[in-house]
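hey can u check if this looks right to u? its 80 residues, i copy pasted from the old doc so theres a chance i mangled smth
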Amino acid sequence: LVAFPFAAAATGALAARGWDRRPVTMFLAMLLGSTIVFAVGLAQLARFVPAAQLLNAGLLPFVPGDLLKSALAAGSRASW
């Protein structure tokens, strides 16, 4: 939850610069926001999970869904 304001600020700043006008750049902006959320989340999770298990516990299971979500959102923007 700590990361969401930072992710929103980053994606909002990119949208203000026109990154929300094309599906590809919109997708990249959303991925940047997700990267911020994952980075802060992994940093917090590292306090409780051994380093060898960190990516398997806090990142890899969520990447496919996040990519799909971002792709669908960016693709739906093309039809506006």
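The chain has four helices and no strands.
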